[in-house]
Fold DUF4445 domain-containing protein.
Amino acid sequence: SQDPLVVFMPSGKRGRVPAGTKVLAAARQLGVDLDSVCGGRGICSKCQVSPSFGDFPKLGLTAREGALSGINAVEERYDRVRGLKPGRRLGCQAEVQGDMVIDVPPESQVHRQVVRKAADARAIVMDPATKLAYVEVPEPDMHEPSGDFQRLVEALQREWGVERVTAPLPLMARLQPALRKGGWAVTVALHKGHRDEAHRILDIWPGFYEGRLYGLAIDLGSTTIAAHLTDLRDGSVKASVGVMNPQIRFGEDLMSRVSYSMMNEGGAAEMTRVVRAALSELAASLAEEAGITPRDILEAVIVCNPVMHHLLLGIDPVELGQAPFALATSESLSLDAAELGLTGMAEAARLFLLPCIAGHVGADAAGVALAERPDRAEELTLIVDVGTNAEILLGDKDGVLACSSPTGPAFEGAQISSGQRAAPGAIERVEIDAQTKEPRFKVIGCDLWSDDPGFTEAVAATGVTGICGSGIIEAVAEMRMAGLLDARGLIGSAEATGTARSEPQGRTHGYLIHDGSAEGGARVLVTQGDIRAIQLAKSALYAGARLLMDERGVEKVDKVVLAGAFGAHISPKHAMVLGMIPDAPLEKVTSAGNAAGTGARIALCNVSARAEIEALARKIVKVETAIAPRFQEHFVNANAIPHAVDPFPNLAT
Ligand code: FES
């Protein structure tokens, strides 16, 4: 007679296995994705399956009945002690006895998918570089003089099919107590990067370790550092935080930091020191917020622009300040967090830095490319990642171009008189009535508009503290639409605009959005200087985009994706009214949140994405804005709101 046929769902993989084969063994044989941390010992319960056609011998029998029907004592005991959900069985214990269809639930799949918030975003497939493995190690023997580590490695090779295994020194020190405490059974966190030849043991626990492993996805911007603490098992984000980059005190934008390092002996080293300290603090505070310990954080993936990249690594960025803008190293980097002196995470934690595309187009642009994959787009897609240094990508499946543009920090709320970074209390949305010229607004952390009843009570905890990047973009665009601002960017007087909110400010005017000064709060006034800062920033952004369009030989794009720093969700309509981006049908302009950070999270959750972005980074053609003669011309024309010459037909509708 024939061997039983098993079909695994949802993969549909099928094949015949001899009667009595364990489900986990059958899954491995047929290439089915079934998880296991304990290596099939009935301890971890990660291998659970449920039969949807045919059945295994029943659980809940007496020992004698069980023995007769082939039921496994290990699984029996697991069910008694820990309890299995109805219909669920341990795949490493249950045996195939006849034809069956076996469902592998999502939590038992190694490569489970993480759904991303944006509707059109690709799901992340979990396949982290660091995974747990339980292993039983032979006891030492006077007649067999091998070390405990060597016997552990042999056991890992035998049970987990790994080849080379290494461990850093601090791990060696933990090894012997863990083996003895665990009765010669331990769980190790095994790490293997996409280019590593060996597996590396990052941590070790006695017996079976039930805890979770975490990683950090970090977007290290010139103005803002955003970090997401991510569960390496299911990709969920446990805590997020954004802080100011402490290097700001050495210069607001990239070039001023490069010149600080050129003018000051030891300046680069000082900037290196403060950013490493900030990352260590950030990691520690995220761990605290999520109620875990720094030891649970085993990896960090970092995206950043080339200057931040070099300063983090302790490399003087001086070459990035002058043509030909040579990078010290452009490939992705895998290293120990300890090499950079980072704390707040595990002693043996690993770091991964995405590759840089060119001297001005960094690992942050690589992160955006990984999150948005413009190289797979059917439509010609323009992606702008708004920050102090904007990363701009244009492309489709026929090729991708990239440049960066020095927009300055205005879009992150810096250089704005009432500006602040995105945090509770900051104005993030603004509307101005075209008739009455009266504003209403929303602040971060509150769902009500400022003219809704109960608004003042709802924001009592923080008050209104200032205006963030997305808020100032909306404010300026709304002022233009309400006729408070002309195409040159000049704010009209009270007589010209018909509202007392237009206040004289020396020889210019400012528009008052909110006056909380009576209660000791903020006075949020948009000044002529603020408008100038936004005009400069948006002109740089637009000019960069236009330069890529010239290079590609097109006058318009099919689709625009707006990405931004932490917390910034830029409104497509306002971005277009302002002329930050070229004209496109409004429904084709979308906001992607922190795409660079998402790219970091993808590379954290899926180790093969690291190889993917390396290959893609090599294919992206970079365009150098600093030496392109047309950049200046585009920049000057883009100073008007929305633009001096380029048409915006989609704004008319
Ligand atoms: Fe761990 Fe089955 S593989 S319980």
